[in-house]
Fold this sequence. Notes:
heterodimer, A: mainly alpha, two-stranded antiparallel ribbon, 2 strands, B: alpha/beta, D-Maltodextrin-Binding Protein, domain 2, five-stranded mixed beta sheet, 20 helices, 15 strands, Sugar ABC transporter substrate-binding protein (chain B)
Amino acid sequence: MKNQARHFSRLRRAEMRTAYIFILPMFAGLLLFSVIPFIQNILYSFRRMGTFGEGTFIGLKNYQDLLTDDTFWLALRNTAFYAVVGVPLVIIFSIFLAHQINKKIRGRTIYRTLLFIPAVTIPAAIGILWRWILNYQYGIFNWILEKLGLPRISWLGDVKYVRWAIILVVVWSMVSYYVIIMLAAMQGVDSSYYEAARLDGASSRQVFFKITLPMLTPMIFFSVIMVTIGILQIFDFIYLMVDRQTLSYTYSMSLVTYFYECAFNKSSMRGYGAAISVVLAAIIMVITIIQMIGKKYWVRSGE
Amino acid sequence: MKKKITALLLALTLVLSATALTGCGGGGGESSDGPVSLTLSLWDEAQLPVIQENVDAFNAAHEGEIEVTIEQIPWDTYWTKLDASLETNEAPDVFWMNTYVQKYVDAGVLEPLDSYIEGESFDMSVYAEGRVDAYNVDGQQYALPKGLDAVVVALNTELFDRYGVELPQEGWTWDDMRDIASQLRDAIAAAGGSEYPIVMELDAQPSWMNFLYQNGGNYLSEDGKTCGIALPESKDAIQQVVDLMNNEQMAPYSVLTETKGTDLFISGQAAIVFIGSWKSSVLEDSSLAADGKVQLIQMPSMAVDNKTNMGGLGYVMSANCENKEAAWEFMKYITGEEAMAHEAEEGIDIPAYLSAQAGYVENFQNINAQAFMDASATGFAYPSNGNFDWTTIVDDAMQEALGQVKTVDEAMDEGAAEAQAILDEVFG
């Protein structure tokens, strides 16, 4: 290394030093707040941790316990449910809406602005807002249902519906962001493709499915990965919309809410909580790898 | 120009970092000649202004000697943050404690107070006995009690009037309550109304914790080693609540999940609610109470009695506190007659300091707050053994029973078995 460094000119070395100094804060932050805690978390997952101190080493006991823990499997099933239902909905809605506001319609800018509002709103506000919209007693959603002659539904209080209510809010808040991404991708498509198609007499349906959609696949791929990771880590909306001690909280429990309960609210289960988060990280990694492998079969590559 | 901006930025940075430094300095109290500084942590934002006034009074009286600063941490993160700060020896000198006290005693992070109490023959009988006992662990006192709370029933007299149902009288029973609720239910249905006869909060303290004991069952045995929710009396108590819901005498579980019982009551949606004294100012300030439509009454009796559990906060000292004498001085003041009388007058807490209690009732114009005092006179200490792994299991079992995803029998049997396994492991 030292020898190599000597090959650089003095000016170049000074430049590099400056570069490293600029990187340092970011790198230190990453190391301190991401890398070290990540490793520490893995180490904790092999321990039984009390409220204070470092606990005792118990090997794979935490992981063994997970296998027979009904609540863990419930949380896993719920998380899978959120991902399986939520990811396609987010992708389909964002493509659909992006396609609509990409047309030359009146008031396009207004629609674009409105669609983007959820993306720039803090999740806490969204959660509280939807909690009231869906409220059985006072919510506008149920008021509309009643006006339509339908029965009121206790969206967040009835264990049959609570997971759907969570999905609704998650999709609503995520679509907003991915509409913008899809819209940008659509506008990046070379207009000569469309001109050629129009000359050949293609219908707008054909244009969408034969040109727009294939050209979007790289962006869809990216979005699917990001949305999947986002939904697998779902916590905030559940925490904000459902009271902790109620049945709905148990029935809508995701892996991260279960992790939170173990790591922060049960004094003797911190190591167990760590094990849950390690399992979640592993699941996310495996799913992402599968998606990477599957990529070549459906994503249009290069230009 | 550029130079000026740079200079300005530099100056700004210096100012900011200087304030940041002074901001951090509160905890240490190591400054050699200045006053001894102490930090006090608490969670309740609503109580903060009044406690700040008490702290200011203390600081003024100890000008140049002791300087107390308050750090308010919201409830949601209070315990997490406290645990972290205790672990890194950066804990506040004095802080609020509740039923979790045993856990902190076991961890050895609280300063035992017996030597201070004996050293100056400090009279503990000035406080309500139940609250002193609650903070006495294995014969050692760990906290000076701040306040106490009690549970009563609030009635919406307007709904009783509107639907032509007579108000219950003191000494009523659950049979009376069922009868009243049925009358209300039928009258509401006949008039096409949407109100509920009875509502309650789903958490333990203002609701089912009381029913268990009032019906002769229990939550935790006297010795703190056995969970009693599967006792026939306990099961029966919970079954009676479930029956109320099924007979539409009480709002259904899903509704109570979404909107808290107290909120339903305050918005005029319910005639009867079980309510804790910690909600007294919310009640007092409601338009319902301002219109004179709220009446408080003692809880109805079940098979045994109508006694309610009594919680309450206390002030504890960190074992790592560097100025223990000063901290003790402060604890005596903040739980003392003058400070607690002020809290009572402002209506933020029922003082555990007995002679300061009088001011509490007079503070309320719209509700008969004396009901809280009467309830606290017969109250029993909130049952706790300092372990909270089994309580979450019991909480979940209760929700399963009340939400009727399991029968009361199943939920209580399974919950008790699981909770007992933990209790046996910890205390066996």
